[in-house]
Amino acid sequence: MAEHTVKAFDDEIGRLRGLIAEMGGLAEVAIADAITALIEDDSELAQKVVDNDPKLDKLEAEVDRLAVRVIALRAPMANDLRDVIAALKISGIVERIGDYAKNIAKRVNEVESRTKIKPVTLVPAMAEIAKSMVHDILNAYAARDAGMAVEVIERDEKLDNLYNTLFRNLVSHMMENPATISSAAQLLFVGRNLERIGDHATNVAEMVYFAATGEYHSEGDRKEKGEADN
Q1: CA terminus-to-terminus distance, the chain
Q2: Alpha carbon of 73 to those of 52, 54, 66: distances in Å?
Q3: Distance between alpha carbon 26 and the CA centroid of its chain, in Å?
Q4: Which H or E element spans position 118?
Q5: Which of 7, 22, 100, 109 would suit a FRET pair with 123, their CA atoms being 20 to 30 Å apart?
Q6: What does the alpha-carbon distance between residue 227 and residue 63 come to, in Å, rounded to a whole number?
Q7: What are phi and psi of 216, to 5 degrees?
Q8: Distance between CA 167 and CA 227 in Å, rounded?
C-alpha cells in the first residue's frame, strides 16, 4: 500500500476513534445530568438532556458514513477490519446509552416526594457505576486494552446487584406507602434504564476485547470458566 494511502487510512481510523470518544463524552454527561436533574428536581437540566440527544444521533450517522467509506475504499483486513467494525457497532450502542439517559430525564417531572422515598438513595450509586463503566470502556477502546474491557465486564455484576436491591426496596416501600406508588414506579424505570446502560457498556467491552484480541469474551464464556474453576 502506498505511503499516502496508509496515512489516509490511519487518519480515517483516528477520525473514527475521535467520533466514538466524542459520543462517549456526551453519553457520560447525559447520564450525570439526568441523575442530577432527578435528585434535585431540576426540570430545566432534564430538558437540556433531552434537547442534546440529537447530537449523539448525528455523530452516530457520521460514524456510519465514515466506516462504510473506509470499508469500501480501503478494504481493511484482520486487525484493521475489526477496528472499523467495532467502531460501527459501538457507535450504535453509545447512541442507545444516550437514549436511556434521555428516558431518565423525561421521568424527572413524574417523580414527586423524592425525600419520602428512601430507596432513591441507591440511584446515584447505580448511576456512578454506570457512568464509570461507559467512561472506562471508551478509554479501553481507544487504547485497545483487553484487560480493562474484562474489568468493565466484571463490574456489571455490581450494578445488577444494586438494581435488584433497588427493586426489592421500592416494592416494599410501595406496599408500605401506597400514596407514593406512582413516583416509586417511575424510579423503578430509572433503575432499569441504568441497569441497561451497564448491559450496553458490557456489550461494548466484549467488542473491545474482540477488536484487541480477535477472540470473544462473552457472558457464557465467563460462566463456563467459573464452573470449570470451581
Answers
A1: 50
A2: 33, 29, 10
A3: 11
A4: none
A5: 22
A6: 39
A7: -95, 145
A8: 28
Our count of domains for the chain comes to 1
| Rg from Cα positions in the chain | 20
Which residues are CB-neighbours of 153 under 8 A, at least 6 positions away? 202, 205, 206, 209, 217, 222
Which residues lie below 8 Å from residue 141, measured CB to CB, with a gap of 6+? 17, 20, 86, 90, 204, 208, 211
- The share of the chain scoring above pLDDT 70, in percent, equals 90
* pLDDT of 225 above 90: no
The whole domain housing 85 covers 3-223
DSSP state of 215: S
3-state class (DSSP) for residue 204: helix
pLDDT attached to residue 218: 61
pLDDT tens per residue, range 163-194: 999 999 999 999 999 988 999 999 999 999 99
**Are the C-beta atoms of 105 and 47 separated by less than 8 Å?**
yes
Whether 199 is covered by a domain: the verdict is yes
| CA separation for the pair 61, 176 (Å, rounded) | 47
Question: Residue 165 falls within a domain, yes or no?
Answer: yes
Mean pLDDT of the chain: 87
CATH number at residue 97: 1.20.58.220
Confidence band for 151, pLDDT divided at 50, 70 and 90 = very high
pLDDT digits (tens, 9 = 90+) for 187-210: 999 999 999 999 999 999 998 898
User: Residue 189 is which amino acid?
Assistant: F
Give domain status of residue 230, yes or no.
no
Kindly list the distances between the CA atom of residue 166 and the CA atoms of 124, 170, 173, in Å, as whole numbers in the listed order.
11, 6, 10
